[in-house]
Amino acid sequence: MTSDIADSSLPDVATLSFEQARDELVRVVGELEQGAPTLEHSLALWERGEALAARCDEWLRGAKRRLEAAQASGDTGDDA
Fold first, then answer.
1. Is the C-alpha dihedral spanning 55, 24, 48, 17 positive or negative?
2. Greater confidence, 43 or 2?
3. Are 48 and 20 in contact (CB under 8 A)?
4. pTM given for the model
5. Within the chain, what is the greatest distance between any pair of CA atoms?
6. Which residue in 31, 27, 23 sits closest to 2, CA to CA?
7. Is the pLDDT higher at 37 or at 7?
8. pLDDT at 16
9. Contacts (Cβ under 8 Å, ≥6 apart) of 55
10. Which of 25, 18, 28 is nearest to 58 (CA)?
């Protein structure tokens, strides 16, 4: 499972959905665990993984803010 992580065909991390970023992060971690053929490739994988993890965190923080805003406005969908 080797890929050219520096390949320009990889999508920009900033454009990925949470699920896309999570799935690619799982793949990158798996590849790192197997061992990359070169130090340069390992570093590229690590950097991509860090960017993907940050993107996932960004999505999760945004979801948390939305939930908190809904709770603060009383719009929880519970009319009881």
1. negative
2. 43
3. no
4. 0.78
5. 60
6. 31
7. 37
8. 97
9. 13, 14, 16, 18, 21
10. 18
Q: For 20, how many CA atoms within 13 A lie in the half-sphere containing its CB? A: 10
Q: Annotate 4-34 with DSSP letters as a single string.
A: -TT-TTSPPGGG--HHHHHHHHHHHHHHHHH
The single-letter code of the amino acid at 72 is: A
CB atoms within 10 A of CB 43: 12
How confident is the model over 9-66, as pLDDT tens digits? 899 999 999 999 999 999 999 999 999 899 999 999 999 999 999 999 999 999 999 9
Q: Are 70 and 76 in contact (CB under 8 A)?
A: yes
Q: Which two tokens stand for residue 1?
A: 């499972």
What are residue 76's phi and psi, to 5 degrees? -100, -5
Q: 24, 17, 28: which is closest to 58 by C-alpha?
A: 17
SS3 of 46, please? helix
